[in-house]
């Protein structure tokens, strides 16, 4: 197993910057990745939900992984989402991603066709058996309509089928159960939370790291939070998390759009306002945030965001 199999710390799910005509903006992608690495993150995850995997053609997926591998150049581990409807399609993505040099892959449960518990278990067993790099299970029931069972996940970890779990379920009770079962089994899994608002609580439960979309906007904050956790500095953890929770309000500030478009749209808008990406463009059928929604993000950034100057006049 590669070092990515024991990966802990802050692993941002990297945004996919687009040009106005919705092609990959390579120059902006370089700025995003280099800024994250400079902040001290422990790995990078492309083609997650924040990275627009559900919108990407196969050719765009390949381009994103290729460019990410080139830019990272071995400085931190690279994880790539291989998310698709069913096992055979995911295996094709695993083959393409590993050929491009990723250190680990991230997979959801199958979706579209109704899939029951034993088939979900078998799905991860197949991926684990056939992937040449570690597999992380991605628990995101809002998107795939399946909640991964904590006991099953720990069993898969003990068997070596998966190396860890990226938990974006928003279910703190289930995550606590997963942490307890993982600890009782000798911690075969690396547990990563994708819940921006309560990373400190996840650490208290037994998480080993975080995969927060907001870390694109404020990587230093999540790195400070993780380092405070390692130092046992719970006061700093709480203070940093409170500020990050206030910053996460950017994802709830839009009035013209809700859901995914509001969340990732806000991340991209914040990065545009910080001068890191050139546009806040998003994939069709969504439209980029504009007008009052941009102003709302700007106001929150100014109040609680990273202490970086916001270029004037960006709309």
Question: Any overview of this molecule?
Answer:
The structure is a single chain. The chain is α/β, with parallel strands linked by helices and 315 residues long. The protein has a single domain (9-235), classed as Aldolase class I (TIM Barrel, Alpha-Beta Barrel). It is 45% helix and 9% strand. It is built from 12 helices and 8 strands. It has helices at residues 26-39, 58-72, 87-99, 117-130, 141-144, 150-158, 172-184, 199-205, 219-230, 234-247, 260-273, 292-304, and strands spanning 9-10, 44-46, 78-81, 104-107, 135-139, 164-167, 190-193, 209-210. The chain has an 8-stranded parallel sheet. Strand 3 (78-81), helix 3 and strand 4 form a beta-alpha-beta unit. Helix 1 crosses helix 2 (58-72), helix 6 packs parallel to helix 7 (172-184) and helix 11 crosses helix 12. The radius of gyration is 18 Å and the shape is globular. It starts with 8 loop residues before the first strand and ends in an 11-residue tail after the last helix. 49% of the residues are buried.
CATH topology tier name:
TIM Barrel
The average pLDDT score comes to 95
- Please write the CATH class name: Alpha Beta
Fraction in helix: 40-55%
Could you give the distance between the termini? 46 Å
Organism: Mycolicibacterium wolinskyi
Family: Belongs to the DapA family.
GO biological process, one term: small molecule metabolic process
InterPro entries: Aldolase_TIM, DapA-like, Schiff_base-form_aldolases_AS
């Amino acid at each position: 197993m590669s070092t990515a199999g024991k990966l802990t710390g802050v692993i941002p799910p990297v945004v996919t910057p687009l040009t106005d005509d919705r092609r990959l903006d390579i120059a902006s992608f370089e700025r995003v990745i280099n800024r994250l690495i400079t902040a001290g993150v422990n790995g990078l995850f492309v083609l997650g939900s924040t990275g627009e995997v559900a919108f990407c053609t196969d050719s765009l997926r390949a381009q994103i992984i290729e460019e990410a591998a080139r830019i990272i150049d071995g400085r931190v581990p690279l994880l790539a989402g291989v998310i698709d409807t069913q096992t055979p399609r995911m295996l094709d993505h695993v083959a393409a991603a590993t050929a491009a040099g990723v250190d680990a892959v991230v997979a959801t449960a199958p979706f579209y066709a109704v899939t029951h518990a034993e088939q979900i278990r078998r799905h991860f067993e197949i991926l684990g058996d056939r992937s040449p790099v570690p597999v992380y299970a991605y628990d995101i029931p809002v998107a795939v309509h399946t909640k991964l069972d904590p006991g099953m996940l720990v069993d898969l970890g003990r068997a070596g089928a998966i190396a860890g779990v990226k938990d974006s379920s928003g279910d703190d009770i289930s995550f606590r159960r997963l942490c307890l079962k993982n600890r009782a089994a000798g911690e075969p899994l690396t547990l990563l939370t994708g819940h921006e608002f309560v990373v400190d609580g996840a650490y208290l439960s037994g998480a080993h790291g975080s995969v927060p979309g907001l870390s694109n906007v404020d990587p230093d904050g999540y790195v400070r939070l993780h380092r405070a956790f390692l130092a046992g500095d719970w006061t700093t953890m709480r203070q940093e998390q409170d500020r990050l929770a206030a910053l996460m309000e950017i994802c709830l500030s839009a009035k013209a759009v809700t859901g995914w478009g509001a969340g990732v749209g806000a991340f991209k808008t914040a990065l545009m306002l910080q001068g890191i990406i050139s546009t806040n463009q998003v994939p069709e059928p969504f439209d980029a945030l504009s007008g009052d929604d941009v102003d709302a993000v700007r106001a929150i950034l100014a109040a609680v965001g990273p202490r970086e100057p916001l270029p004037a006049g960006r709309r």
